[in-house]
Every structure is written in C-alpha cells, then in structure tokens.
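User: Fold this, then the next.

Assistant: Folding the first:
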Amino acid sequence: MAEQVFPTKGNLLATRKSLALARLGYDLMDRKRSILIREMMLLIDQAKTVRDEIDETYKTAYKALQRANMTQGLCDEVARCIPEEQSIRITYRSVMGVEIPHILYEKRDPALSYSLGSTNSQHDIAYLCFDRCKYLTITLAEVENSVYRLAVAIKKAQRRANALQNIIIPGFEENEAFISGALEEKEREEFSRLKVIRHTKMKAVNSEE
C-alpha cells in the first residue's frame, strides 16, 4: 500500500477524488506528450530539408569562391565590404507550455557593396550563395533549437506520465481497495452484531411469554 490511511468514508471519498485527478493528469500529460512529439517530428523533417539545402548551397558557394580566388586573387578585401546582418530578432511562441524560439529577420535582396570592376562572376555567385546560406542558417538554428527544447519537454512529460501511471495511480487504487474492503468488513461486522442483538432480544421476549 502506497501510504497507510485510516479506513473512513471521508478518506475513501478523498482517495477517490485524488485518484480521479491523477487519472485526469495522466490523460492530459499523455495528450501533451503526443502533441509535442507531433510538433517535433514536423520540425525534424523541416530541419532535414533545410540542412540538405544548406549543404548543397555551401558546396556551390565554396567552389565559386575557390574559382574567384584563382582568377582574381584572395577576396579578403572584398569580404570586408560585406555589411554585418543587424536585422535579426528573437521572439518565442508557446506549444503546450514549451517556449519555442521564432527568429524574425528582414530578408532583403542582396545589394552590391563591392566594386564590379575588382571582381568577376564567380565572386558574384559565391556572394549570392553565401547570402542564401545566411538565411538558411537562421532557419536551421530556429528549427534545431526548437527540436531540442521539445525533446527536453517530451522527456519530462514522459517521466511524469510514467510516475502517474506506474506509481501514483496504482497507489491510490490500492488505498481505495483497502479502505473499501475495510469499510465493507466493518459493515458486515455491524450487521452481524445487530443480528445477534435482535436474536437475543427476540429470544428474551419469547422466554417472558
């Protein structure tokens, strides 16, 4: 038995109420876990798609950069002309109480910040590919961080659901059975006692007659 309780009707009602709440809590926790898993699986598929696109874009970008370095020399000076990204902001949205990051950024068409006379087409290709990688990396960072947070929340929900299912609910069920059995036994004893008293009274009345 999970916890020794005194077999009274009040304790029986309290135990049944706690058992009902525990079962409701398990249902809600199981539902939360299912929703979080579904959300995470969608994000995992999205992450795979973005990761594959990033890999291909980086390959194209580095090949173009290599050709640009071979045809016009190192691009260090040109790279310093590229402005830093300043428009990124992070907000959050809630999924079943789990805070999921949402990255806001202003996606603009690439603007030339270097001289066309000092570069060639390979440099332009590399610049466009790396600019595309920047936005893909922002998306991937948002998705992968969301997947991590969801995985942590799912693990916690799983532990709590297991505790409710395997420890708390069986404990309340055991207490309910113990109290019900004790009260039924007490009622049987009371019934037997009253029956003996009644029989004794009837016997006394008959003897007086």
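Now the next one, as you asked:
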Amino acid sequence: MESYAADLTEGQQVLAGQFLGFVGDSGYGDEGTVGQFAVHLHIGIYVPDADGEDTAVNPFPYLEEVRDSVVHADYAGLY
C-alpha cells in the first residue's frame, strides 16, 4: 500500500467496499523502493504457527471464494 486510510487501525474489522487506502508500486526491492514495479496490491494472510510465529498462507483460494462478491467503487474524489 502506498498509504492507508486515515481512520484505519491495525486489527480493525473491515467491510466489503470500505476504503482502505491507495495501492502502490513498491516491490521486492530495498525498503522504500518505488517506481520499479506495476501498481498492485499485495494480499497477505498470516496465521500463528504452534510456536506463535506468523506463517504465510496462500491467499488465492480465499480470493477465489469471494471473486463473485467484488464491490466496485470509485474513490477518485478522495485525493
């Protein structure tokens, strides 16, 4: 994300269609790398393992499950 919505807080429950922020163009470069990748949104799902360490989970099956529930919105007036 390039930036998050001002009223968004970590751990907050969000709803479909709620404005979360603006996508960015950073990627696998050094911290702060921008402009070297296409604009995109990274989706990450992490759950704690038996030792309490966060483990990445493949988000694709979850995205497929909600594909038909996509809410299209135009936030052009927000910036």
